[in-house]
Each structure stands twice: as C-alpha cells, then as structure tokens.
C-alpha cells in the first residue's frame, strides 16, 4: 500500500452530528463565525463533509450548502461550496461550466482530462450525465474543433493508465521525431495518436528514447511545432505523463505569479488535489521555484479565503 500523499485526511473521531451543530451555531445569530466554518470544513475529509451534510439536513430540515451560501460571499463562498462537493461531482461541474458558460474555458478541459486517471474519467463521464444532464463527449464535440477536439476525445476514451509495450517504444519515438521534422507544418496526427493512446508509463519511456535520439526534450519540439490550445493540451499530457504533481506545481505557480491571481485555477487545484497528492505537489513546488507553496499562497491571497487555502495546503515547507 503506497503511503497517503494528501494534505487533507480523515479527522480522527469525527462526529458528524456535532459538527453539523457547530456549523449551525456559527451561522445562527448576528454575524457569521467564518473561522469556525473554515477550520471545521478544511480539517475534515470530503467523505466526512458529506456525512455532516446528511446530519445537518436531519437536524434542521435544510440543505447545508444552501445555508452556507446564504451566509458567505465572494471567493470564500465559492471555495466552501467546492469543498462540500464530492470530488467526481466537482470535476463534472467544472467541466460543465467550462463548456456551457460563455465561450469555452479550454484550460479547465485541458487540466482535468490530461491529469485524471482513466478510472476517474470513466466516473466523471457517468456523473456528468447524471448531474449535468448531458453527454460529456457530445458537449466537448459541440464546443471544440480540429485536432484539439480529437485529442480531448481520445483522452476521454483512453482505457488504461498502466502498461508498456516494449516493442513500440523505439517505434513511437522515431515516429514522433519524423512527425516533427522539417515538414511544412508538423504531422500533428502522429503526435495526437501517440499522446492520446499510450499509458503514462509507456510515454515516459518514449520521451527518454526521443531525447536520446534527437537530443531534444519532447516539450521543445511541441512548442516549436504547434500553437494555441492544441499546444497547451499536448504539453499538459506530456507533463502529466512525466509527473502529475510537477504539472500541478507549475499550474499553481502560474496561477499566482502574474498580475492578478487566477483564483479559479488556484482554488480548483487546491480543492481537487488536497486528498490526492498535495504533499508531492508541495515538494515539487519547492524544488522548482525555491519557495514554499504555503508562503506563495500567503503572499497572494487574503482573508478567510486565503486562510482556508493555507489549511488545504497543510503546512509550510
């Protein structure tokens, strides 16, 4: 059994009934005690938050999320609602929002489809149908086009994360080298077929072979050969094949180190990786940027929202 790499764990001796009452008291009366809400929800696992939701409804006859929404506002409210959503439902709702809002938010599609496991994607497809009332594949097809669409659909249908085909490693590497070389326009199809149909394990070996023969990193070739959302998607697939935590460390860094914080991305990653690999993301962040994720969040956010994100981060490195 691999050791647990999340920063958010099950709270020992959690009493959902008691927690529901604490939240009720924090919201009742004059003023809301944001600190109680923040500390309580950030220190419970998602499963425990779902239990609290059930107990709250039993005791007070109303939905806890609606009650929280009526008391809170701004980014803190958005974050709390995200924390109260089961992980697969959260991914499905983020994809739905990305596809059904004004214009398509390609970055969300790229992040979720490139980084989730095949099993998670299967679950997302099911939950999307049930909770968002549509077919994810159909919505993606309706909202995107060209090779970008093609690779997204391949990722949606990819059936395995594991497994290496030794006979294909060399062949795949040579095909990628040939596809990126000296033609007018790159043979994007070749890139897409290999990136969209191989396991992460297999791709890592292909990228090593690619570098050995061509002397280049695969990322450099992609950056030189294609542009826009297709380039971003291909790079995300490559980075996630190499290291999902490093991919998220870079995304977090980019969400904060620019004029104005990209709060939606920051929040989405902190919520969705808290019970997955936040400890690894923190380690990668420190190694890549020489600063701790905790301090970076501290410098970039404020108020209850910032405090809650620090809780999810789980500590300073």
TrEMBL record:
It holds the Pfam family Annexin. One of its GO terms (molecular function) is calcium-dependent phospholipid binding. One of its GO terms (cellular component) is plasma membrane. Keywords: Annexin, Calcium, Calcium/phospholipid-binding, Repeat. SMART domains: ANX (SM00335). It comes from Oncorhynchus tshawytscha (Chinook salmon). PROSITE patterns: ANNEXIN_1 (PS00223), ANNEXIN_2 (PS51897). The keyword Transferase does not apply. This is Annexin. Belongs to the annexin family.
């Amino acid at each position: 059994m691999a050791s647990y790499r999340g920063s958010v764990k099950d709270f020992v001796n959690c009493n959902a009934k008691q927690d529901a009452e604490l939240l009720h008291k924090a919201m009742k009366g004059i003023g809301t005690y944001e600190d109680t809400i923040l500390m309580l929800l950030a220190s419970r696992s998602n499963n425990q938050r779902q239990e609290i939701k059930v107990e709250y409804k039993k005791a007070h006859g109303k939905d806890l999320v609606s009650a929280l929404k009526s008391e809170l506002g701004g980014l803190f409210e958005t974050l709390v609602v995200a924390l109260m959503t089961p992980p697969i439902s959260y991914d499905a709702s983020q994809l739905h929002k990305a596809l059904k809002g004004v214009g398509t938010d390609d970055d969300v599609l790229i992040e979720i489809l490139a980084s989730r496991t095949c099993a998670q994607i299967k679950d997302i497809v099911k939950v999307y149908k049930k909770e968002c009332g549509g077919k994810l594949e159909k919505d993606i097809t309706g909202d995107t086009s060209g090779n970008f669409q093609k690779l997204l659909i391949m990722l949606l249908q990819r059936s395995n994360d594991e497994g290496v085909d030794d006979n294909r490693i060399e062949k795949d590497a040579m095909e990628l080298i040939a596809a990126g070389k000296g033609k007018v326009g790159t043979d994007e199809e070749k890139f897409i077929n290999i990136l969209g149909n191989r396991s992460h394990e297999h791709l890592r070996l292909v990228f090593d072979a690619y570098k050995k023969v061509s002397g280049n990193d695969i990322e450099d070739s992609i950056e030189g050969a294609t542009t826009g959302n297709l380039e971003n998607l291909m790079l995300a697939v490559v980075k996630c094949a190499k290291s999902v935590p490093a991919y998220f460390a870079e995304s977090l860094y980019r969400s904060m180190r620019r004029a104005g914080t990209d709060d939606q991305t920051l929040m989405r990653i902190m919520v969705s990786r808290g019970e997955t690999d936040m400890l690894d993301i923190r380690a990668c962040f420190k190694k890549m940027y020489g600063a701790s994720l905790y301090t970076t969040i501290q410098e970039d956010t404020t108020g209850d929202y910032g405090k809650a994100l620090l809780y999810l981060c789980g500590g300073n490195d």
